[in-house]
Amino acid sequence: MRPTPQPPPPSLPAEILLVGVSVTTLLSGLRLFSDGSFLPPVIGATLLTHVLVAVVRRAGRSIGLGALVSLVGVAALQLWVHYPHTTRFGLPQRATLEALSDDFRGAWDLVNSSQVPVAAQTALVVIAAAVAWVIPVLADWGAFRVGVRGEALVPAAMAFVAVSLFGTDEGRILYPLLVVTCAVAFGLVHHRSQRPARRGLGGGERLTHRGPLGLAGSALAVTGATLATVVLLPALSDGPLRPLLDPAAAPAEGERKVVLSPLVVLPGQLLQNPHLELFSVRSTQRAYWRLTALGDFDGVVWSLDERTATATGALASRAATTGPVSEVTQTYRIDALAAVWLPAAYQPVGFEAAGNSFRASFEPVSSTLLVGSSRGDSDGLSYTVRSAVPRFEADFLASLRNDPADVPPGFTDLPAGLSPALAELAAEVTAGHTGPYQKALAMQDWFRSRFEYDLDVAAGHSSARLEDFLLEDRRGYCEQFAAAFATLARTLGLPARVAVGFTPGIEAGPDEGDGALYSVRGEHAHAWPEVFISGAGWVAFEPTPGRGAPGAEDYTFVPEQQDAPGPPTTPTLAPPQPPQPQPPSGAPPPPGSPAAPDGGGDVAGTAGRVGVLFGLAAAGLAAAGGGYALATAGLRSVRRRRRRRWAHGDAGRTAVAAWEETLELLAPRGIRPRLAETPLELAQRAALALGAVPDMWRRLAVCVSAAAFGGDPVPAELGQQAATAASAISAALRETRTPAQRLRALVDPQPWALLHAGRRTG
Fold it and tell me: b/e per residue, 721-731, with b = 16+ CB within 10 A?
């Protein structure tokens, strides 16, 4: 197989600057991720891709081979970085595919439920590495194979625009400056390095360009796409498509809404900086500052799927505590929580925004406070909450029994396929105990005495992970303790859920009459189970060793405990990995999936939402493709008219123009001039490849050679012969084009970079 013909070799500075464009574009991804841990595998992927496609290109091989070789290289790099323990002698095994499948199975939930900056989860880093592969492949093809400048920068520009639209404000001046600097430098150097390849056939004369039109066209395209996005974004954000596109948007009062799991969203956002103050609270009593309680378990994640209403002055819960309570007033100032939840001591009964500066929503089943739909997170907000904090005693709880009529529905449901061994274990642990309180207390004591707190374990709280935690490892962190407790409780018929929030934090100021001031950091993030008991409501227990809720010692017999302030403490929530097992058939939708108003049709809702996203993406691609094709056709027509105006009245120029138009028709068939190849040699090769009669081709080549290299003026009849031969060849080429060749000619980017000015230079 003959090597694919290439333009003149590019200069090394141009290649290095194109690498700089890719690297600076990917550096801007720091605006999407919570830390820089994603950079080494992603930057490594783009550098490896640039090197491999350059080696293949310099060897004279096709772009397809370069893309394939670099893809294998990038895949191997990601494999050795993220899944080395699953390989054998560096080669993937079945365990590798299973680990990869597990990570990507949860990727949709991570992207769908997280707010920027997101945690650098494995699946997201692998996706970013795939983008880091695509950008160099397309850029190298456009710059050094096709010979364009602006179009070579389009892939990086699209990635940068996406980061600018969805990323944080951090580095919003620095990163664009870096990217634009590298892009402009590349454009200038590449233009200079390609100039020898743009000489015409006529000795020292050549057709010159009227400015960097390829770069200008690309800039216009990117600007147009950005403006269109800015125009459409408000309509999509506030219009009828929002419930389909953004399940986290707060609905109208009484509308069903999926409350996303903090166990998925919070760890990456909060725990990368465990000593960063997330919020402060002045309270008349220490408490666990609760975000939400999750009651739906599908075998993969815990979530909450209920209705929200506007949070007014008084908040009514559907499972109010009937035991003795103390009213606790808290005033919060949120600094860096970066989430939609509003912390509050359980159970909030009153809410007031500072100066009525914002609206909040309230979910009465879990007693969850959230910011309204007009805000993306709670950062910068201040508000006051009144809570009815229960003061349970052991004798009171021991006297209670659950009345089935009082039990909230759904809180004893278990996912299909749960191991029967867990129910047997729960029955064994609670053997000899009667009553919901006695059984829950027995499980709490069993966890605290038989298990160890350990962050260095496999992450997650799926069914499979809980089985390993309960039956084998018996080591884990609070998320797993809480989820395992709630799961075992449900096997006993006890209504249970998982609460997520924070321990009290560090006392940062004395009590000045309205309570002490507490500084709450990422290291104080925590999860604990709650069990419903008729007559008492939801009762919190503490199975995690080393933790104890304030004011609960009278019934849990666990003194208040939390992480000691400052280094070297560690957060109680470990950054979880994407959920591992496949959601069982018939299970509730994962967090982030919209639920139907009647409680059914979850699959249809998800399918509809995915369909809308794909439909919008397809429509956008179709519109962009159509606009590009029309613009390319228009530029091709402009170039043809300019060429013919330049050749008007001159036989030599007419021959050269006819030859260049013939070369354009040959390009979609993969026939291009080779270096040092004469027009006659090219004509013979083209006639042979096409199976055409060589006479016309030879006649055209002879005319062009005489026009380009002859010292004397070209006779008019020779120019007429060239035009006649070119017309016959063009008609034959157009009639025999395949659909693929027509499409290839339609999307050929050459017209964007090769528009001629229509004048000669010496």
Answer: bbbebbebbee
